[in-house]
Amino acid sequence: MRRMIFLLLACFFLTTSSTSALEWAYGFVVHNGKVYEVKEEETLSQEEIGDLIGKVETKADEYSGDYHGNASNFYEIGTLYYKIAEVSISEAIAVETKPNYYVKAVYVHDAPFHITNILFSVYTWILIMIVILFLGIIVYKSKQS
Predict the structure, then answer these.
(1) How many domains does the chain have?
(2) Which CATH number do you get for residue 92?
(3) What's the DSSP call for residue 81?
(4) Sequence-distant (≥ 6) Cβ neighbours of residue 56 within 8 angstroms
């Protein structure tokens, strides 16, 4: 009986746990809270490309599936997004996958809420700075009295 318990414990401690990465259903980019599926087969000409509207700033976590901000599960940080001429950004955008090579990314759904979207928002930092300034003025005035 002791031998059996020893073997079971030895097998338990000798086995390794494995981790695996997610297999995404499609390549996507996130721009301003909207997820766009990248259609590699739908290339765009230079004439169809409008203004620069953003870029990939974070990568989606391949183990948990979490992402926040302007993210991608496939493209590198720094990959640029452009408006497509005569197409609403709420419908599709262009992604520059190589220099002067653009593919269409079609809106799929809104990105899930993530707390870092608020924490890294420019407006949040402006509000924090205003509150600190306001508190500083109050403290300064109370010491003057």
Answers:
(1) 1
(2) 2.170.150
(3) E
(4) 29, 70, 71, 72, 75, 76, 77, 78, 79, 81
pLDDT at 119 (0 to 100): 58
Which residues form the domain of 67? 21-113
* pLDDT averaged per 10 residues, the chain (length 145): 63 53 74 90 90 90 70 90 93 93 92 61 74 87 81
**Whole-number pLDDT of residue 111:** 75
Could you give the maximum distance between any two Cα atoms of the chain, in Å?
83
Please check whether residue 38 lies inside any domain of the structure.
yes
141, amino acid identity: K
Q: Would residue 120 count as lying in a domain?
A: no
* CA atoms within 13 Å, Cβ hemisphere of 45: 2
Residue at 46 is within a domain:
yes
pTM above 0.70, yes or no: no
Domain for residue 122, yes or no? no
- Strand partners for 11: none
Q: How far apart are the first and last CA of the chain?
A: 83
pLDDT value at position 51? Answer: 94
Structure tokens at 123: 């407006």
Picking from 133, 140, 79, the residue whose alpha carbon sits closest to that of residue 105 is 79
